[in-house]
Amino acid sequence: MRGSFDDVPLNTLFPTLTPPDVESLHQVARTVDAACVGRGTADWEWFLEHAAFPGTWRGTPVILGLDVIQHADGADQLEFLLQVVWTQTGQLAVDATVSVACWCDTDHATHDVDTNRLEVGKDTSLPGAFRAGAERLTGWLADPHDADHWRARARLPPR
């Protein structure tokens, strides 16, 4: 499903959240939404079928996420992602990632050029991990939005 963060059924996706946890997630999401103004839609996506750990799974089951796409001249683009996911071991994690369009001889579609994962556990709450990921995301959104900058930083081939 897709919509504003106010539409996200947080207690269904994360049944152990307390009311202060829910309010914290909403505050963080408002900060992210404000950083996305003027960059197209800031639609959040959520997957009710991933609310419970799916067990053995190929890929990374996303529970909640935001994908901010920054188009540049030609076919170039940057993607800024903030996602709550399941790890292979059944832990919740928050991933923040910058991806850049691929111009390699073998077309990979995109490359993750900077990423940050924070697992939720006894030392880190979901709201804390979400806040850290959001801070990383909003920092990237304030950085240069030139895909060549990110390609050079990751030592990828130029367009």
Give an overview in words.
By secondary structure, the chain is of the alpha+beta class. The chain is built from four helices and six strands; from the N terminus they run βααβββββαα. The longest helix has 17 residues. The chain is globular and about 45 Å long.
- Count the helices. How many? 4
Strand order of the largest sheet: 1-2-3-4-5-6
Distance between the termini: 34 Å
pLDDT < 50 stretches = none
Instruction: State the helicity in percent bands.
Output: 25-40%
Based on secondary structure, the structural category is alpha+beta
Q: Beta-strand percentage? A: 25-35%
Listing every helix as H and every strand as E from the N terminus to the C terminus, the arrangement reads EHHEEEEEHH
Mean pLDDT: 89
Largest sheet data: 6 strands, antiparallel
Work out the radius of gyration: 16 Å
Oligomer: single chain
Based on DSSP secondary structure assignment, what is the total number of beta strands? 6
Shape verdict: globular
Q: Which descriptors would you attach to this protein?
A:
159 residues; 28% strand; single chain; alpha+beta
